[in-house]
């Protein structure tokens, strides 16, 4: 890491659960993270959104000290994971995209194993979450559905009573009902425990009802970082040749059905809660906002999230 890796973060970061400054990571010729600056407020549920290959997994792995950055620094609940890895990991609950379950073990065996690895593991919290979903403790892991396996992984993460939950696309392989149930359990836990969650996804509709903050990551760069409602309120969508007054063009992409090229615009902020200028154009959906910023990063129209 750079020579300033041991420097303290600015006072503004004191209320942030996760902070990255100038964070860069390369894999040979590929740039995975490019001078990323990020602050995830404590108590928030932040959506980390971007297409596959945007750098979302790399960012989470750096925060877990699974990958060493080439430059920059990161702090998890105020702790540098590369200087104090054990201390940082005690503050983090991690849920990967592919559930880390062992086929020959029962659900209860997984809780016992977690208890042996984490001195403060709270089995009752994990059991209560699993009971809410009707997942028997004596059921073998190889008989769990994809959604049940994901819920087991989340229950184990919650049982650690971690202050920060890092969720790396845990919804990607789940059916719609399983995704809804997973998000509900996550939100209940965050509200109850007062923890912070960073939920990574490449599917906008998975996270827009769950999160209060949006971070768009594309090409290893942070394209937008703001409260979810601000992202919706401050943007408009029009056909490409119909700009709203006083607005800045962000990016163009094919509209639904592929018939028209649409442009995302950012309205100039006024002194009040609403942006200044006439509200010309359609209100932008969260998906429109994400597509516009990612298209701007690629310098192309027609971008679609899969």
Written account of the structure:
Helices cover 29% and strands 28% of the residues. It has 306 residues and is α/β, with parallel strands linked by helices. The chain folds into two domains: 214 residues, P-loop containing nucleotide triphosphate hydrolases (Rossmann fold, 3-Layer(aba) Sandwich), CATH 3.40.50.300; 65 residues, no CATH class. The strands form three sheets. The protein has a six-stranded mixed β-sheet with strand order 5-6-7-3-8-9, with helices on both faces. A hairpin with a 2-residue loop joins strand 1 and strand 2. It starts with 15 loop residues before the first strand and ends in an 8-residue tail after the last helix.
Shape annotation: globular
Per the CATH scheme, the topology name of the largest domain is Rossmann fold
Beta-strand portion reads 25-35%
Helix and strand run? EEEHEHEHHHEHEHEEHEEEEH
Strands of the biggest beta sheet: in what spatial order? 5-6-7-3-8-9
- For the record, the CATH class of the largest domain is Alpha Beta
Pick out the low-confidence regions: 1-12, 270-278, 300-306
**Tally of separate domains:** 2
Whole-number average pLDDT? 85
**SSE class:** alpha/beta
Any idea what the CATH superfamily of the largest domain is called?
P-loop containing nucleotide triphosphate hydrolases
The helical percent reads: 25-40%
CATH architecture term of the largest domain: 3-Layer(aba) Sandwich
Query: What is the number of strand segments?
Result: 13
Give the biggest sheet.
6 strands, mixed
Distance between the termini: 34 Å
Radius of gyration: 20 Å
């Amino acid at each position: 890491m750079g020579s300033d890796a041991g420097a303290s973060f600015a006072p503004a970061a004191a209320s942030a659960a996760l902070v990255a400054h100038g964070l860069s990571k390369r894999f040979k010729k590929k740039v995975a993270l490019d001078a990323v600056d990020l602050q995830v407020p404590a108590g928030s549920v932040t959506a980390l959104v971007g297409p596959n290959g945007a750098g979302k997994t790399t960012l989470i792995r750096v925060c877990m000290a699974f990958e060493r950055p080439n430059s920059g620094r990161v702090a998890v609940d105020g702790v540098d994971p590369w200087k104090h890895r054990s201390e940082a990991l005690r503050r983090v609950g991690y849920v990967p995209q592919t559930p880390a379950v062992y086929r020959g073990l029962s659900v209860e065996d997984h809780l016992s194993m977690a208890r042996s690895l984490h001195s403060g593991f709270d089995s009752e919290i994990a059991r209560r979450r699993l009971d809410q979903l009707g997942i028997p403790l004596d059921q073998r892991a190889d008989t769990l559905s994809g959604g049940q396996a994901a819920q087991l992984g989340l229950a184990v993460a919650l049982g650690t009573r971690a202050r920060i939950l890092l969720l790396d696309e845990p919804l990607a392989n789940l059916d719609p009902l399983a995704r809804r149930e997973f998000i509900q359990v996550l939100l209940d836990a965050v509200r109850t425990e007062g923890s912070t969650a960073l939920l990574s996804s490449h599917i906008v509709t998975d996270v827009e009802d769950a999160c209060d903050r949006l971070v768009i990551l594309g090409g290893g760069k942070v394209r937008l970082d703001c409260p979810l409602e601000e992202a919706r309120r401050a943007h408009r969508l029009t056909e490409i040749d119909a700009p709203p007054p006083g607005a800045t063009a962000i990016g163009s992409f094919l509209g639904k059905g592929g018939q028209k090229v649409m442009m995302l615009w950012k309205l100039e902020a006024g002194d009040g809660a609403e942006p200044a200028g006439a509200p010309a154009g359609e209100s932008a959906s969260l998906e429109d906002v994400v597509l516009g910023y990612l298209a701007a990063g690629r310098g192309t129209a027609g971008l679609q999230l899969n």
